[in-house]
Inverse folding.
């Protein structure tokens, strides 16, 4: 199930990864303490390279597909219903473990 609303941005090789990530912003206005709610789709076989959570803590929620989130060196499955918490300062990388289907996930960011 894809969650698409309005226009989307495409980021290629995000944080040194491979493939494309399509990103939809789902938060239309002020909703403090939340700063962003993003619907993301990582291309088959794609990855998002390691990056530090510098501004906001995040929660990543798997929606569809077969992936993996690595947080501070620890691997976590990222499929439908899987949730990963990212406190400030943590390092995240994502992998789509499928060669023929996208990995779909939500990112929720909030003030710490």
């Amino acid at each position: 199930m894809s969650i698409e609303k309005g226009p989307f941005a495409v980021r290629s090789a995000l944080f040194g990864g491979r493939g494309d990530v399509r990103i939809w912003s789902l938060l239309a206005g002020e909703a403090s303490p939340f700063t962003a709610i993003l619907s993301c789709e990582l291309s088959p076989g794609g990855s998002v390279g390691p990056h530090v959570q510098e501004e906001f803590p995040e929660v990543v929620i798997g929606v569809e597909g077969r992936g993996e989130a690595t947080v501070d060196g620890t691997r976590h499955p990222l499929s439908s219903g899987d949730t990963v918490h990212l406190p400030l300062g943590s390092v995240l990388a994502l992998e789509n473990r499928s060669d023929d289907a996208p990995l779909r996930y939500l990112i929720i960011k909030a003030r710490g």
